[in-house]
Design a protein that fits this description.
By secondary structure, the chain is of the alpha+beta class. It folds into two domains: 225 residues, Butyryl-CoA Dehydrogenase, subunit A, domain 2; 193 residues, Up-down Bundle (Butyryl-CoA Dehydrogenase, subunit A, domain 3), CATH 1.20.140. Helix content is 47%, strand content 14%. Strands 2-1-10-11-7-6 form a six-stranded mixed beta sheet, with no helix packed on it. A four-stranded mixed beta sheet has the order 5-8-9-12. Strand 6 and strand 7 form a beta hairpin. Helix 3 crosses helix 8 and helix 8 runs antiparallel to helix 13.
Length: 480
């Protein structure tokens, strides 16, 4: 298992990251990326320190080498429990705010390795490619991001019918050694701080899209690969006190551009096969395993939100108010407990198929469907509990350090239950969660990272046990 220092060193690989029109020389030291990279590095160190812990790692039966549980192919509910602990381990350092930590795409790769027969359908060599890269990623503890959603150029037209070809990534030519890829993919969250990129499509491809029907991996410093991050929030954060979340946990969504990137055959999992690309996430355990990680991570965020709400009530001296307690219980605790139950049900009642224990889709998709509603409701509840607190804060932490303003700040910004600095530190934290640009991105991410609501609802429709429900109705109808 790798150390944090090894992870950081690997990022100094000459990758082409462009911010504000200029190439970033070193992402590990640039203020836009340094803090989230530091968070990941610390977690790698904690994982390394826990290498012998059977609660977080497993031993390879062939070699005895221990690997993190994010690489464990689940065969039982107990294995899913081991994966849940690994996901929580990676989510807690950022309080669930970083959705694409290394364990997310590790879930995708692990699921692919467990279902290599899908890739064998394109030729046994492609199944071999999947297995070899999975083993490499596992052994080196690699951090992968993925780019699987095309830009919003023209969603009404298949890729092969666009006026300009290869706006979406596709194969422009083939050589004996590999393929050459051109085009762009959107929303590659955390790409600037990952080791490798997995490129494919989760949006369904249409007949005729063969040139675009690819599934592959490339290192982030591949020649011709360019990364264009959105504006990072850390660069606008004046201090950690004023922006405690923006300054530390922005994983930075990124557009990736392939300018004729050469991809060796051994890094290709699917080559120009529409059927297999459309099947890879849902026929394999990939989609449910990746979104099981998302449920566990979101559960950590819910706990954080519950803690914020209670602490705010305490600082305001309102935690004994029956109406506030009713809000905390009914609008926060009940929702958090219900979501926690869904994640644990997905683990404890797996769908067993092909020797793999998939988190039960019924509970995974129920959680995904509720997730976007919960985040809206809980953020609104936090705003209601805060009331006018967000409007009555000094302009910055400098109010406490200035000789001219310190006395007034400490006298008039306190509450009966907390001194001014403690109260304002909490209020700033909550505002960064619900009100800043970082908070707005958190809301948008949770609402749309998986798919549009109708897509999630249709997955739920297909996963629910309608036959059992119909059987109850049939029995009732036949009783009289």
């Amino acid at each position: 298992m790798r150390t944090g220092a090894a992870y950081v060193a690997a990022l100094r690989d000459g990758r082409a990251v462009y911010l504000d029109g200029e190439r970033v020389k070193d992402v590990t030291s640039h203020p836009a990326f340094a803090e989230p990279i530091r968070c990941i590095a610390r977690t790698y160190d904690h994982a390394k320190a826990a290498e012998a812990d059977p609660a977080l790692t497993y031993a390879d039966p062939a070699t005895g080498t221990r690997h993190g549980n994010m690489w464990l192919v689940p065969r039982t509910a107990e294995d899913l429990g081991a994966r849940r602990r690994a996901h929580r381990f990676w989510a807690e350092p950022s309080y669930g705010l970083m959705g694409r930590t290394p364990d997310h795409v590790a879930s995708v790769l692990t699921a692919f390795s467990a279902w290599r027969q899908l890739f064998d359908r394109g030729g046994a060599r492609f199944g071999d490619h999947v297995m070899r890269f999975y083993e490499r990623a596992r052994d080196e503890d690699l951090y992968l991001a993925y780019a699987i959603v095309p830009p919003q150029v023209d969603r009404s037209t298949p890729a092969h019918r666009h006026a300009e070809p290869f706006l979406h990534p596709g194969v422009v030519r083939e050589t004996d050694a590999g393929i050459v890829v051109r085009g762009a993919q959107a929303i590659a969250t955390s790409a600037t701080m990952a080791d490798w990129l997995f490129l494919s499509y989760i949006t369904p491809l249409a007949p005729g899209d063969d040139a675009y029907a690819i599934s592959l991996v490339v290192p982030m410093n591949a020649e011709g690969l360019r990364l264009y991050p959105r504006r990072p929030y850390a660069t606008a954060a004046t201090s950690v006190f004023d922006y405690p979340l923006s300054a530390r946990f922005d994983e930075v969504d990124t557009t990736v551009v392939f300018n004729d990137v050469f991809v060796p055959w051994e890094q290709v999992f699917i080559d120009r096969n529409v059927e297999l690309v459309n099947a890879q996430f849902h026929d394999s355990p990939s989609h449910t395993m990746a979104n099981f990680q998302s449920l566990v991570r979101f559960g950590v965020k819910l706990e954080f939100m519950a803690g914020l709400a209670l602490r705010l009530a305490e600082v305001q001296g309102a935690d004994g108010d029956p109406s506030v307690q009713a809000t905390l219980g009914g609008d926060i605790a009940a929702l958090c407990a219900a979501f926690d139950a869904l994640a644990k049900a997905a683990e404890r009642f797996p769908l067993l198929a092909g020797g793999v224990a998939r988190p039960h889709p019924q509970y995974v998709y129920a959680g995904m469907g509720l997730q976007r509603r919960l985040i809206v409701d809980l953020m609104r509840t936090l705003r209601e509990l805060a009331g006018g607190a967000f409007q009555t804060v000094p302009s910055s932490e400098a109010a406490f350090t200035s000789e001219e303003t310190r006395a007034d700040t400490e006298r008039y910004y306190k509450s009966a239950a907390a001194p001014a600095r403690e109260r304002l530190k909490l209020v700033r934290l909550i505002w960064d969660f619900v009100g800043t640009e970082f908070g707005g991105r958190q809301l948008q991410y949770e609402m749309f990272y998986s798919a549009a609501q109708p897509v999630v609802n249709r997955r739920m429709f297909k996963s629910y046990d309608w036959q059992a429900a119909k059987a109850l109705v049939a029995r009732c109808l036949h009783e009289y």
